[in-house]
């Protein structure tokens, strides 16, 4: 670092903290910040911690078996026990998945790529709000986001909308065409429960996944799209009872027959191909390019992204037909994300990961498990994969910079400082993590702290470390 | 974990002095701190007014709602048309003692069906989504005397309705270990040159130590009690906001709302019981971004709609009645052939309830809170003079 001039050092620090996940203990400052990021714009192997997790099909099978056992329980108390076991099992799967996400973020040598996985998982979010989604939420990120983060937007979109976690979360699996054979059969046998459309997934695809809100679609477009999506369901011999054991399955008997008209375009396709064609068009719509470009720009260049950057990213998206590495390269090669430090207030996830990396916290599974990550992020006000709404977590300062939220970070910084390895020396760590970015006040308060513990905690909550 | 309030109060004095210089000067036309308390509870996700305050006397209700219709025999009858969901036991008591008022077929000016746009409109008071940057609850605080007590969010973060020029605090029970006072004092020093963090930290320190001694849980009833433990204090907040989530019932609505409403009822009871005598000075306004479809969808739930119900609770409220210009549930009466037609303005309700609670001029409050002034039906006499 002694050989690096101030501009190069500043760029290296922006690459590590704004584009990456924060400098890790003993990580070298990249000499060529842009080159370091560009080199991360190609597919990497799946991190070992993620690869070791069960697949969504395995999780669904496990979940259905326990549920079936509960349904067949001899009496009410046995049933309650089995249901409690099911909740524990679901939570264990969720916890393991959260821990694997943390471990991957600590161990990665491509932190920019890892950040983009988190970005897209929030864009296409599912939320662990009920018993059936808790075990599955992580698998959407692992199976539909991560494999496509250096691929095409359309492929990611298709993978997400076919994924069991999304089909469950936005109520698609039970949506039935009112004129489908399934609905007719239900009426014929006078079923107690009328089955019909659920427009939740159709609306959120338009509003949150592709075009963006107020981009010109109407209620009729939502309803027509919901009709096109009927039949998108999951495998499973007991599907009629709501138990599923595998991945995507198209159920033609639930599909609303006939052509659909969405955003002025007529879709004559039959069956699964119909909604597929709609998604294909949505992935290429100019509104989608703009929406994705503005979210990426906000994430890297500040809460109010410069319109020149948004336009440039949208153009890269459109011209490359949604090739994501092309869009990332346009971002890295733009001047706007390289403005002086601190354009973004870190979310709790970003802050915690950068703190753990900075402290060189142990990434082995036992150490991470001891930290009780799910509860910790709950207390920091950002429970993992649980934003509580399909819009995902907000990406603006006002949403995160609040009085009690700062207190929580101070509390956690204090706890982390107490767990830091003996070798950590506050003054040296300040130089490693903040370098010439540290203000005189930050320097003097950390250097003047009454204990090593407090000095380390103050470093983590310093204004420079709270932002990226 | 146990918060040591004595130590906190000592620390409070120190940091409060630092915060005073940050307060922006502003026009204040109320000069004396009011005894009145105004609490806004937002129901995020579009709460189904037809399920919370079911119109069991409407001849089309059961036909439209079918299996989801709340049975007339189990509701608390409010009047000839409306009932109250049976899970709202404490709310029903409040109604009987004249401390609960329901407004039906109400909505904001927002007519599309996006949660996030709809919530933005009811939190900002804007004429459309993202038209106004700050929240109406913050602007209401701007009409009160400057300085303490700060308006409060009872969550770690501050929701949009409470964001804006007026300094705001937030508090929620933490399960993390409490740091020592020495560290807290040094954080104050660390933030002294950072305008944003200095303001946030000072606001946090001002309210430390106000919470009751008992270790509060994080469930709705405990949250109500916790908020009340701040609101009851003479130096406590006069304006506060609580958030509730989970109202987006696209499937299995009946069971989910049973549970949600029990929690919500506990939150109201926690506020009432914790406020004690100050309950007489309190208005609690409950609103959601929009209602849900009149018809049941294909999955035992309802989809995004338009008109819903809003609620006022508190000893200051002139309750025991339902206000509604009821449009009816006949298919021909529905909005866009699917939703409860809104006949009352949520913006007007907000402005009137807030103005009457603090005994401010309703016209001026409406101009400050609602972009373009208020619109639609005007109210009066919602809150005792």
From TrEMBL, chain B:
Residues 1-30 form the signal peptide. PROSITE patterns: TAT (PS51318). InterPro entries: DUF1501, TAT_signal. Keywords: Signal. It comes from the Bacteria. This is DUF1501 domain-containing protein.
């Amino acid at each position: 670092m002694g050989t690096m001039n101030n501009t190069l050092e500043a760029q290296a620090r922006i690459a590590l903290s704004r584009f990456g996940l924060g400098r890790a203990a003993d990580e070298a400052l990249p000499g060529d910040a842009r080159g370091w990021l560009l080199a991360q714009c190609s597919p990497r192997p799946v991190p070992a911690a993620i690869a070791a997790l069960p697949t969504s099909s395995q999780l669904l099978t496990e979940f259905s078996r326990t549920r079936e056992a509960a349904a067949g329980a001899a009496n009410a108390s046995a049933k309650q026990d089995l249901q409690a076991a099911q909740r524990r099992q679901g939570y264990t799967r969720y916890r393991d998945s959260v821990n694997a996400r943390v471990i991957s973020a600590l161990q990665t040598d491509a932190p920019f790529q890892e950040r983009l996985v988190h970005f897209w998982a929030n864009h296409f979010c599912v939320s662990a709000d009920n018993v059936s989604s808790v075990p599955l939420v992580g698998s959407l990120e692992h199976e539909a986001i991560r494999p496509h983060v250096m691929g095409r937007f359309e492929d990611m979109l298709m993978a997400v909308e076919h994924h069991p976690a999304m089909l469950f979360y936005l109520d698609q699996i039970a949506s039935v065409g009112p004129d489908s054979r399934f609905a007719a059969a239900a009426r014929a046998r006078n079923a107690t429960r009328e089955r019909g459309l659920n427009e939740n997934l159709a609306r959120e695809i338009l509003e949150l996944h592709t075009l963006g809100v107020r981009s010109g679609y109407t209620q009729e477009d939502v309803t027509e799209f919901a009709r096109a999506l009927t039949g998108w369901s999951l495998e499973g011999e007991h599907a009629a009872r709501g138990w599923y054991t595998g991945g995507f399955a198209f159920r033609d008997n639930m599909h609303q027959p006939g052509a659909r008209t969405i955003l002025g375009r007529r879709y004559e396709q039959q069956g699964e191909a119909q909604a597929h064609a709609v998604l294909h068009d949505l992935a290429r719509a100019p509104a989608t390019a703009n929406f994705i470009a503005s979210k990426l720009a906000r994430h890297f260049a500040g809460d109010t992204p410069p319109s020149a950057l948004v336009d440039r990213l949208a153009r890269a998206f459109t011209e490359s037909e949604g090739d994501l590495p092309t869009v990332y390269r346009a971002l890295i090669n733009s001047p706007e994300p390289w403005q002086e430090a601190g354009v973004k207030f870190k979310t709790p996830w970003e802050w915690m990961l950068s703190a753990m990396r900075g402290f060189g916290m142990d990434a082995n599974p036992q150490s991470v498990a001891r930290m009780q990550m799910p509860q910790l992020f709950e207390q920091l006000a950002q429970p993992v994969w649980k934003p509580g709404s399909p819009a995902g977590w907000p990406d603006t300062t006002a949403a995160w910079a609040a009085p009690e939220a700062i207190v929580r970070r101070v509390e956690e910084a204090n706890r982390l400082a107490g767990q830091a390895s003996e070798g950590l020396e506050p003054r040296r760590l300040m130089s490693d993590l903040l370098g010439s970015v540290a203000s005189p006040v930050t320097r003097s308060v950390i250097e003047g702290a009454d204990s090593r513990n407090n000095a380390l905690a103050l470093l983590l909550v310093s204004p420079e470390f709270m932002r990226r | 974990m146990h918060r040591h309030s004595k130590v906190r109060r000592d620390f409070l004095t120190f940091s409060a002095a630092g915060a005073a210089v940050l307060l922006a000067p502003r026009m204040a036309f109320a000069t004396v701190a009011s005894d009145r308390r105004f609490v806004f509870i937002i129901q995020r996700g579009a709460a189904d007014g037809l399920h919370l305050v079911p119109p069991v006397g409407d001849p089309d209700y059961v036909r439209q709602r079918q299996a989801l219709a709340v049975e007339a025999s189990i509701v608390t009858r409010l009047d000839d048309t409306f009932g109250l969901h049976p899970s709202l036991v404490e709310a029903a008591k409040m109604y009987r003692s004249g401390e609960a008022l329901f407004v039906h077929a109400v909505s904001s000016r927002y007519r599309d069906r996006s949660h996030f746009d709809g919530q933005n409109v009811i939190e900002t008071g804007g004429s459309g989504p993202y038209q106004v940057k700050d929240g109406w609850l913050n602007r209401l605080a701007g009409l009160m005397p400057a300085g303490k007590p700060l308006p409060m969010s009872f969550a770690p973060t501050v929701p949009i309705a409470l964001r804006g020029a007026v300094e705001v605090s937030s508090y929620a029970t933490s399960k993390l270990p409490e740091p020592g006072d020495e560290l807290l004092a040094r954080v104050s020093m660390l933030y002294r040159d950072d305008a944003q963090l200095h303001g946030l930290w000072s606001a946090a320190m001002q309210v430390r130590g106000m919470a009751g001694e008992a270790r509060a849980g994080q469930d709705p009833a405990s949250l109500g009690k916790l908020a009340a433990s701040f609101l009851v204090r003479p130096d406590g907040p006069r304006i506060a906001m609580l958030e509730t989530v989970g109202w987006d019932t696209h499937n299995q609505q009946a069971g989910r709302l049973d549970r949600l409403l029990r929690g919500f009822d506990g939150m109201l009871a926690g506020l009432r019981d914790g406020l004690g005598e100050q309950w007489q000075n309190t208005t609690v306004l409950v609103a959601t971004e929009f209602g849900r479809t009149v018809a049941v969808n294909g999955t035992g739930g309802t989809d995004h709609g338009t008109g819903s119900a809003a609620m006022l609770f508190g000893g200051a409220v002139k309750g025991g009645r339902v206000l509604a210009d009821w449009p009816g549930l006949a298919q021909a009466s529905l909005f866009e052939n699917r939703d409860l037609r809104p006949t009352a303005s949520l913006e007007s309700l907000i402005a009137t309830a807030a103005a009457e609670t603090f005994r401010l001029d309703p016209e001026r409050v409406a101009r400050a809170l609602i972009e373009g002034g208020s619109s639609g039906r005007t109210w009066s006499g919602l809150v005792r003079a």
